[in-house]
Amino acid sequence: MYRFWLYIEAFRPNYHLFDPDIENYMELKEAFFQQLPSSAELYELARIVQFLTEIVQWVSIAIAEVFEVAGDGMPSETGFALFSAPSVILQMFKDQSGAPLLALADPWDGSIGEEFDFIKDALSVAFKTRKLSEPVWDSHEMKKVILDEYEQYDRPLHADWGLLKGHLPPHVLATSMIGHLPRNPYETNSLYEYLYQLTLFFAPIMSWVFDKKDDSDQYRDLSPDDWIFISCLLTFTQSRLHLWWLDRKRTEGMHIPLDDCWYGYNCRTQIHRYAHAAKLNHLCAPTRGDPAY
Q1: Angle between the 39-63 and 86-95 helix axes, to the nearest 10 degrees?
Q2: What was the pLDDT predicted at 16?
Q3: What is the pLDDT of residue 73?
């Protein structure tokens, strides 16, 4: 972490001194990495960069406020967040807000160059120069950097449900219902708008689906106290999310069509005919045939 702080102080751009086009700017960065005494320290630095990047991405997904995209690459805005300092990123996570970052002075006056990359490009060159494999998160070299690895780190339980919003934001959850419901614009748009207004929407959803789970199916032994992979948790939630949404609509007096569609959530017509999707209730199981396939 001290190496990363030093890198920030050495290469943080400012209004008066920074020029991204100077010839030796990249060379100075490469020289910085060449001074690291061992390849192990290079992997340690890469691990820190990846960790901080994931925190920024979590915040951006959870609040949909700072960055629209937080994928595997390095958006210029993420680079801007990285050179702001780890303390700023930590505050973003604590506040669950982009305010700590947005309060900083921007050397580009609000317009960050698309080509800007604060550290990852130079770090990649350093790995190639030393003929090292790319710092993939799950690689053996990267895992050696972690002194104590908690084996359940990627398995949330009820105490962590609030953190799921940084992995499964409203627009993802709204399109994760069973059958063809994810392609029903009438229901998905309504569900998205509802979820977007909630601050901690996962806790009540997960509590409900666990309380209402069917003890006769494959999830009968699943408990809120279990450590569950996110993918498995989403599959479990997907099988009951439409029922939770129907319950919410009834409880809060939202409009629910009087008649159920014969084909329920597997109806294909709901996909391409909005009038049909809005006229009949599709938050139900098929009762006359099953046109899912």
Answers
A1: 30
A2: 44
A3: 38
* Residue ranges in the chain whose pLDDT is less than 50: 15-17, 66-76, 107-108, 110-116, 150, 152
Structure tokens belonging to residue 144: 């050696």
Angle, vertex CA 282, rays to CA 276 and CA 288, nearest 5: 95
Residues 6+ apart with CB under 8 A from 162: 200, 202, 203
Q: Which residues contact 241 (CB under 8 A, 6 or more apart)?
A: 173, 176, 177, 178, 205, 209
CB atoms near residue 126 (< 10 Å): 22
Instruction: State phi, psi for 260 to the nearest 5 degrees.
Output: -85, 145
Cross-strand bridge partners of residue 260 = 281
Contact between 88 and 104 under an 8 Å Cβ cutoff? The reply is yes
DSSP state of 266: G
Decide if 1 contacts 41 (C-beta within 8 A): no
The DSSP string of 65-113 is SS-S---SS--HHHHHHHTT-HHHHHHHHHHTSSHHHHTS--TTTT---
> Cα separation of 74 and 82, whole Å?
10
User: What pLDDT sits at residue 13?
Assistant: 63
Contact 98, 66 (CB under 8 A): yes
204: how many CB neighbours lie within 10 A of its CB?
13
d(CA 80, CA 58): 16
pLDDT at 291 (0 to 100): 59
Q: What single DSSP character describes residue 5?
A: H
Structure tokens at 282: 């599709």
233-248 pLDDT per residue, tens: 888 888 899 999 999 9
